[in-house]
Automatic annotation (TrEMBL), chain B:
Name under which the protein is recorded: VWA domain-containing protein
Domain VWFA: residue ranges: 1-92
Pfam families from the UniProt entry: VWA
PROSITE patterns: VWFA
InterPro entries according to UniProt: VWF_A, vWFA_dom_sf
Taxonomic path: Bacteria, Bacillati, Bacillota, Bacilli, Bacillales
Organism per entry: Lentibacillus salicampi
Length: 310, 246
């Protein structure tokens, strides 16, 4: 498939002016931002404003994507995808017409790049942010589908992870429109390709595994065992391990349920880590034990009190 | 609107036909009877992306109204699905375009419509693609050179059934291989809603020397006809069953 898509990439020289056939808006192409499953994305400028322009020969698929962007734009309360600015056709020559749409240009860096630079403490924060957005999306009746690292970007000030390509977004209950094998639970033999919240939650875990296995890994003869071993081998994911495992096995029905568990695990984990540093400084033998006991108590209190919360 | 059934032949091959009638002709014949012919050409690892021998792949799909794609075997799974789904969309869009022409005049097609309205039309196409019933007859080349590719073909087909069975509409698959022992093609798996059962059958496939692609397609069309009779009878029964529920 990959070769087929690569051939569909469209090369437009920087400086080219694209004028829409229907709305007559003029866009100046600045540079290529990347190739998607369908078509290519360029940075463009119109009246001093930047935008990301996606262009493809495939009018059908582009229309489907635009439909998704429009629907996401109607979801109240959070900005799920980039906002849509224009949809049009470009008649490059007499017999070649391309479809394009212009969306908000999100400038940031990759999830793994950001985490490497700013530290692994951010991993949990991004997990919570993403689960919150996923919950909104699922509530609105959609599943992200092609949830993968390449479709995420981290904006700075304040750090916030955003989705940039919503092409695979599918209505709940239908067949997943677009997926990438490594992130697909069907490929791992751990579920169907029906669009349901748990499909996204599986891919969500794979996004975070991908950070620690940038080259990814093969599924081997026993895909499930491989997956769990890889998860348990990552020291930095230790705190989240049980939640992530539960998501891989499809045992979460909703993002909010997973988010709740994750938050719980994070609140518990933070204290022992800090105390560990302090006890190092003190360098005494008994104190850590006593303190450890106190922390256990505190943890127990947190654990119990969490049950009282609605 | 009554939901129809899309009929497809999925031909998986790695070379040229060398026996019997021109496969482009039998593919055209299939198209005339409402059956789309899609072709996937598997490349050997040392082959370039544009080998001469595989020109036939594109020709068959063109006259069969379907989609064709050349791939290395590593990418087979995803390609099988892309080709099948693309062909579905293409067929459905063909229907919709015909309807549009009737409503808006002969010059209208989806590209002629302004982007805002295009969205609504595509929603209809998507809905149809999700809910229509689909019948796929898989026709696998088992000539000698395919031998080491068959395990990959098997995996790709199981994966295809996983993807298609996530749809709301019903699916039916069957698998034939060609050349058959005595005939041009041979049944591997009869019409069934899932393909999980093929794991046990596939290793038994033996590979032969000739490649009668043309006759095999003709034979495949006949298989749709045969089953069609039975299905019509069953479909007539169905409304009665539903009414009984009230």
């Amino acid at each position: 498939m990959n070769q087929a898509w690569k051939k569909q990439g469209i090369n437009i020289r920087p400086g080219t002016v694209i004028t829409g056939k229907w709305h007559q808006h003029r866009y100046v192409i600045k540079q290529k931002l990347g190739n998607g499953a369908i078509g290519s994305v360029y940075l463009c400028e119109r009246n001093g404003h930047y935008g990301a322009l996606k262009i493809s020969e495939n009018a059908t698929s582009m229309t489907v994507e635009v439909n998704v962007l429009k629907s996401l734009g109607k979801v109240q309360g959070s900005r799920l995808g980039p906002s849509l600015m224009d949809v049009d056709d470009w008649e490059a020559s007499r017999n070649s017409t391309y479809s394009f749409y212009v969306m908000e240009y999100l400038r940031g860096e990759s999830l793994s790049g950001f985490i490497k630079k700013r530290g692994h403490e951010w991993t949990g924060i991004f997990m919570l942010q993403l689960l919150e957005d996923l919950e909104h999306l699922h509530q609105a009746g959609w599943v992200f589908g092609d949830f993968k690292s390449e479709n995420l970007i981290v904006l700075s000030h304040p750090p916030k992870v955003r989705w940039i390509d919503v092409g695979g977004t599918t209505q709940i209950g239908r067949a997943i429109k677009e997926y990438t094998e490594f992130y697909d639970r069907g490929y791992w033999g751990l579920g169907s390709r029906k669009a349901e919240p748990s499909y996204d939650l599986f891919a969500f875990v794979m996004v975070f595994l991908n950070i620690y296995y940038p080259k990814r890994f093969e599924k081997g003869t026993s895909p499930k065992a491989t997956l769990l071993k890889k998860l348990y081998d990552v020291r930095q994911l230790r705190v989240y391990r049980e939640c992530l495992k539960k998501a891989l096995l499809g045992n979460y029905q909703s993002s909010s349920e997973m988010r709740h568990d994750l938050l719980h695990a994070m609140n518990h984990a933070r204290r022992p880590v800090r105390s560990h540093n302090r006890s190092d400084r003190r360098d005494s033998g008994k104190a850590p034990l006593a303190e450890g006991g106190g922390i256990m108590l505190a943890a127990l209190f947190y654990y119990l009190s969490s049950f009282m919360l609605p | 609107m009554k939901k129809g059934t899309l009929k497809q032949i999925l031909l998986i091959t790695d070379g040229c036909s060398n026996k019997g009638e021109d496969p482009a002709v039998t593919a055209a014949l299939a198209k005339q009877q409402g059956i789309t012919v899609n072709v996937i050409g598997i490349l050997d690892d040392d082959q370039t992306e544009d080998p001469e021998g595989l020109q036939e792949v594109e020709d068959i799909a063109l006259s069969g109204g379907g989609v064709s794609q050349l791939v290395y075997k590593q990418a087979l799974s995803q390609t099988v699905q892309t080709v099948t789904k693309q062909a579905m969309t293409q067929t459905l869009q063909g229907f919709v375009n015909q309807e549009l022409k009737q409503i808006l005049g002969p010059e209208q097609s989806l590209e002629e419509v302004e982007p805002e309205k295009r969205g609504e039309i595509m929603e209809v196409v998507e809905d149809m693609g999700e809910t229509c019933d689909l019948e796929v007859l898989v026709l696998t080349d088992t000539s000698a050179s395919m031998h080491d590719k068959l395990p990959t073909v098997k995996e790709a087909l199981i994966d295809l059934s996983v993807s298609l069975n996530a749809r709301i509409g019903r699916n039916r698959f069957c698998i034939f291989s060609f050349p058959g022992k005595r005939k041009d093609m041979e049944k591997v798996l009869d019409w069934s809603p899932k393909l999980d059962s093929i794991s046990t059958i596939f290793p038994k496939l033996t590979s032969g020397g000739i490649t009668p692609t043309g006759p095999a397609i003709r034979e495949a069309v006949y298989q749709f006809g045969k089953k069609g009779l039975l299905k019509n009878l069953r479909d007539e029964d169905e409304p009665g069953v539903e009414e009984a529920g009230y």
